[in-house]
Input
Amino acid sequence: MKESLALYREVAPTLAPFRFDRFELDLDDRRLTRDGVAVALNARYFDALALLVREQGKLVTKQRFLDEVWRGVPVTDEALTQCVRTLRKLLDDDAGAPRLIQTVPKHGYRFIAPLGDAPVPEQAARDWPRVLRLGLAGTVGAVVAGAIGGLAYGFAAGAGVSALAVLLCVTVLVALLGGAGVAFGIALAEFAPGRPWWRAPFGGAVGGLVVGAVVKLLGLDAFTLLLGHAPEGITGGGEGVLLGGAAGLAFWLAGKVSGARSIAIAAAVGGVAGLVIPLLGGRLLGGSLDLLAHSFPDSRLKLTTIGGLLGEPGFGPLSQATTGALEGALFVAGLVGAMLWVARRRP
Output
């Protein structure tokens, strides 16, 4: 059975990537993923893992590693030891109690995990500690993005120190609530049966909708209670759906690549969503702040400086579209980047 499986893999690797534990090793695309998220692995270490997996259950000697992975390049035994040590760390394996890579003292190594064509076990994804880690990481990433955005708007508006501090607190609070809703929505989508591509976008959209709608409702009530009237049109559930769905889509797309490319993809997807929202008549943070400033004439918050930089007399459509794209890119890149960072480093 094992021999026939190995032969089939060699003949048609593109049809059936190797699956073991929570991992998938695609030899054709030269990619290792864990729960659908790409794992960064340099070319030589990938070749070493591929050799071990192809020979599942068989001893792979040190000499064979040197011949097929290092291809005659003179290296010490320590180089091979370090290679296997790194693979075990990435695969969450333990040399003392191996589940995947077994050491055969003085001879080599053996890959001992079962292989199969069935989907990665869903119970691995249905892991509450993992959901908590991902959700918290995304929330922290969103808060950092919100703080950067708040500082940028504060300096652009020429606000004093006290006004800048207030604005920073407001933006951080909004980012905290919105980020938590979207990040935990994406993380909880891990519980969806099967592995459909749309589960992360759907989870992010639902999280964004719930938080956006609740925050808007409470905000309008607070303005009415304290100031007698509330501005209509501030950001809410609709914007939350679009931005949350974009964050989920970015998480799915960026998880397929590694390094700076994943952040670039997340920023691009978020930027597009942030651009579309004002084009559809919605408002993100900048548009909402400008609306509040106009609703209360005595407000010291003025964003006309931004409009002036873009050739507008005020904070007009071009300003809203530009700042919306930047806000979306920053929010999604921060949230998704933090979630992927945790997903790639923790089992």
